[in-house]
Amino acid sequence: MNYELAKVALLNDSQAYYEKNLNAFNNNMSLLALNTFEISSLLEVAQKDNNRVLKIAKSIAAHTNFIKQKSKDLSNKMRDLHSKLDQ
Questions:
Q1: What is the residue-level pLDDT of the chain in tens, covering all 87 positions?
Q2: Percentage helix, strand, coil, to 5, in the chain?
Q3: How far apart are alpha carbons 49 and 57 in whole angstroms?
């Protein structure tokens, strides 16, 4: 009889242990899902920011090339003007 009572007590303890740990596991999985969602949102914002920075960098590069070409053209015109004045 004591063996049966011990067996039932062990079964009850085991069930309580697994229910407690299952609850903790479920809570951790919920936190993990929330963290994953938050990280995904933050990565999306970072990607948008990176795209904006890339667009600005391309614009700066285009303006730099434009100014470089205009400076070169102006330098050639000044050289031509100087050579005409020397003649």
A1: 687 888 888 888 888 888 888 888 888 889 899 999 999 999 999 999 999 999 999 999 999 999 999 999 999 999 999 988 887
A2: 100, 0, 0
A3: 12
The pLDDT value recorded for residue 54 is 97
Can you tell me the distance from the alpha carbon of 70 to that of 79, in angstroms, rounded to the nearest whole number? 14
Q: What is the pLDDT of residue 1?
A: 64
Q: Cβ–Cβ contacts within 10 Å for residue 11, how many?
A: 10
| Cα–Cα distance list, 2 to 5, 6, 72, 78, 80 (Å) | 5, 6, 102, 111, 114
HSE-CB for 63 with a 13 A CA cutoff:
6
Tokens (6 digits) for 52: 């904006």
Please state, in angstroms and as integers, the Cα–Cα distance from residue 7 to each residue in 20, 21, 29, following that order. Answer: 20, 21, 32
